[in-house]
Amino acid sequence: MPRAAAIAPLELLAHGEIAVKGRLPWASNATFLVEVTRGRDTTLGVYKPQRGERPLWDFPRGLHRREVAAYHLSEALGFGLVPPTLLREGPYGPGSEQLFVDAEFEEHYFTLRQRPEHRAALARLCAFDLVANNADRKSGHCLLGRDGRLYAIDNGLCFHVDPKLRTVIWDMAGEPVPDDVRAATGRLAREGLPDPLAELLASEERRALLARARAVGAAEQFPEDSTGMRYPWPLV
After folding, report:
1. Checking phi first, is residue 3 left (phi over 0); if not, alpha (psi -120 to 50) or beta?
2. Band of the pLDDT at 6, cuts 50, 70, 90?
């Protein structure tokens, strides 16, 4: 790993020079590991250009904007789950650029879910996906950083106006929604979306997002999947 940057990660990602190190082959869309350098500061990032997106029938082009919106939602809720992510003109055109997470890559949701020390973070992630309407929360999209924190990546399939929730996080179904989670989602519903988030979504998507935040803020328990169909494929 490069040495720790002396400047803020978002500033480095926004203004540093991008050099492509290679393509991440397991990603369904074109995804590149990049090195970002500004002066003596260097970090690794994940760059997803719009031109590398596969067309989808139910989501419009521009999934990179939803990646950035997911970061702003996580920050607005105070959850700190999504690594710093921004819009950036890169070597292959406009896309999203996200801080690379130095993670324990053998760990994922199915290895973390029974460990008490991660329970609170996973509850926040469960609520985050409900509010974001995440249509593709695979187990491998939950990373355990070497700093001990939980991170949520690959958030491009979020914010649809129709119910699209597909997730592996159903273990909390029927359990109480933590008070801090209800408070955070309720506050977002009352105060509205911050401008950096609102600007990335269509008006109907903003209304749907606030309605979901309001529902989670008022819920006493996490919802259950009575259909058995709300799982992504593959699971990991």
Report:
1. beta
2. low
